[in-house]
Amino acid sequence: MEQFKILVFHTIFSENAFCLSKRLGIEVLNDFKAQDGITYLIFGAHDQAVNLFSIQRQNKNIKYIIINTEPPQSNHLKNKYFLTLMKENIVWDYHDLSKKYLESLDIRVYSMYFPEFVYTPVETPRPIDILFVGSKNERRISLERKLREKYPDKRIEFHMEWKHADQSEMRKLLQSAKVVLNVPYYDSNILETHRIHFGLACGCEVVSLYSGHEVIDKFYEPFVHFHHDLFEYFDGVDMLPADMTEQKKKYPDLISALMPLVKHNKWLLEQLIQV
Fold first, then answer.
1. CATH of 128-249, one of 3.30.160, 3.40.50, 2.40.160, 2.40.30
2. Strands 39-43 vs 63-68: parallel, antiparallel or unpaired
3. Which top CATH class is 4-117+257-274?
4. 165-203 pLDDT, tens per residue?
5. Are 192 and 36 in contact (CB under 8 A)?
6. Phi and psi of 19, rounded to 5°?
7. How far apart are the first and last CA of the chain?
8. Which of 15, 56, 152, 226 has a CA 20 to 30 Å removed from the CA of 38?
9. Which residues pair with 66 in a beta bridge?
């Protein structure tokens, strides 16, 4: 796999790149110096779309595999350079709904991708009962208020100002939490598997809204506590998920279920070598 390299243009994907490197046997580069004949698997290409576009215009022998992690609502999907990059290169996507949206823009998605993290389920006490990390909006503010009213004696933390780009700090926070919430920012809900996988990898129980994509929700049901309305969910439970005797399957079980996709992507790369 020497003709492939992995590039990361945003620190939030650093651990995902490390795990993909181990699975596929491909080096992660610290510095990007475009080399003739190399195909680059790229995390965060939207952050460097203009530069990547310019490099490829100057040298047609440089190829990209764009790992798209942006939902259809993202402003990055209005960037003409990013869209052109995806139209002219191989694309892997993280969600079937995102895949269908890209295909509506005449962008072919060759395969799917899932974000993998290092499994670190610490056995130390977890002082945070309920944790959420993400940008602020009214839905998330209302849920925080509701949870504080229902569980006045529980430690509830909503981090809605912190950018959490430092993955080591994010991991420490998750390892201190019993339950982590997945509350989508947008009304049209794509299941945020990056947040779910990171929480599970750190040993948290994950509570999430259903995404409305029946097949994907069903796949994740053995691992995630789902509900159509989180206000109703917490009204209807006497214990938090982390206190329940019957808990969901753990992160290694999820990764085992996703291994066929890893094998498929490795096969795709082997086919590219033969072209």
1. 3.40.50
2. parallel
3. alpha beta
4. 678 888 999 999 999 999 988 776 789 999 999 999 999
5. no
6. -65, -40
7. 14
8. 15
9. 42, 91
